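B., you asked whether I could sanity-check this one before it goes into the benchmark set. Here's the sequence:
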Amino acid sequence: MKAQDLRSKDVAELNKELEELLKAQFSLRMQRATQQLTNTSQIRQVRRDIARVRTALTQKAGS
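And here's what the prediction gave me:
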């Protein structure tokens, strides 16, 4: 996910994206806890995507 793509979305779309990412993060954490997660780098990627979406939301709120 690129920051430029996020900037073109409106607040409702960003909130939906954030909700989906948080669900994905929870799912990955549960998979890691039960030792079913094979690609642990996915957790890091999802965390960074969440940060990008939250940053975009903050920028939209400031404008």
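One thing to flag: The CA atoms of residues 32 and 39 lie 9 Å apart. Otherwise nothing jumped out at me.
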